[in-house]
Amino acid sequence: MSVQLNDSVKVANTTEKEAGEEGDGGVSRSVRLALFTVVTVVVIVGFIGNGLVIYMAFACKKFRVLSTSVYLSALAFSDILQVFTGTFTLNVLASDLWIGFNLRAYSLGACVACEFIIYTVSKISSWCVVAITLERLFVILKPHK
């Protein structure tokens, strides 16, 4: 009797996967599609917003001479990289919905390179904020020097 029960459960699970109700990891396709849509919007808005910051930092002559523009440009550039590399940490984007393959599963070198870039960019972004804060602190404590 247990053999028949196992066979029927196996058949039920096979038909459910064949019907496309569940994707990788037991997450339904509609949830994966919603997450894909949200992440795509975040990537587009992040790229446009940070791109405008970089453009303004180099386009305005008054702003270009300030050291803050260099810090803000570095922060915007690292945030652009953070937006793009941070999205690869989601399993939904490593599936067939966006890039078509999981880059980390391709090779050990690709996995190590992805992890290195993700963590390095996040640290650069944090330290840019620290540098901007320290510069503003020095300007407040020692004005006109």
Protein topology:
Layout: H1 2-19, H2 29-59, H3 61-64, H4 67-87, H5 103-106, H6 108-141
Descriptors:
disordered N terminus; 6 helices; 145 residues; single chain
Outline of this structure?
The chain is mostly helical and 145 residues long. It is built from 6 helices and no strands. It has one domain (2-141).
Q: Can you offer a commentary on this structure?
A:
The chain has helices spanning 2-19, 29-59, 61-64, 67-87, 103-106, 108-141. It is mainly alpha-helical. It has one domain (2-141). The protein is elongated and about 60 Å long.
Poorly predicted runs are: 1-23
The major pleated sheet works out as:
none
Average pLDDT score: 75
Shape: elongated
Overall helicity? over 70%
- What percent strand? under 5%
User: How far do the termini sit from each other?
Assistant: 87 Å
Figure out the total of helices.
6
Counting copies of identical and different chains, the oligomeric state is: single chain
Q: Would you list the SSEs in sequence order as H and E? A: HHHHHH
Radius of gyration: 23 Å
Task: Estimate nothing, just give the exact number of structural domains.
Answer: 1
Structural class: mainly alpha
Q: How many distinct beta strands?
A: 0
